[in-house]
Amino acid sequence: MANKKKTEEWEYVKKKCRLNDKTISMAKELGINPRTILKNMPNEAEKWKAPVDQWIEDMYEKAKTKAAKKAKNRERELKEASKKGNENL
Predict the structure, then answer these.
(1) Could you write out the DSSP letters of every residue in 68-87?
(2) pLDDT confidence of residue 82
(3) 67 vs 51: CA distance, rounded Å
(4) What does the CA dihedral 2, 15, 32, 60 come to, rounded to 10 degrees?
(5) Do 53 and 23 form a contact (C-beta atoms < 8 A)?
(6) How far is CA 65 from CA 1, 12, 77, 78, 85, in A?
(7) In a structure prediction context, what are the per-residue pLDDT tens digits for the chain, which is 89 residues long?
(8) CA dihedral 70, 76, 80, 86 (to 10 degrees)
(9) What per-residue confidence (pLDDT) applies to 44?
């Protein structure tokens, strides 16, 4: 029952905000609620707001960049730790 309701909400958001499947999947991966997307739709008085699809894509890129940076740092720390471990032997 809840799953059907959530699917209907996503379909409504997709139609209302004119989003494609790729953008919807990005939003789901980010954990964005469909109601949050509706709240962030720009109106006439909010010319400064980016369109919803652009807003989601920007957040997705930032998240991916941050995750890649974190993975790179983790990898570097592991290499440094293994070097120190080999020096102690």
Answers:
(1) HHHHHHHHHHHHHHHHHHHH
(2) 82
(3) 24
(4) 140
(5) yes
(6) 36, 30, 18, 20, 30
(7) 678 888 999 999 999 999 999 999 999 999 999 999 999 998 888 888 889 999 999 999 999 999 999 999 999 988 888 877 766 55
(8) 120
(9) 86
Question: What tokens appear for 25 in the block?
Answer: 């999947």
Length of the chain: 89
Pair of tokens at residue 2: 């809840």
Amino acid identity of residue 88, one-letter, is N
Distance CA 52, CA 73 (A): 32
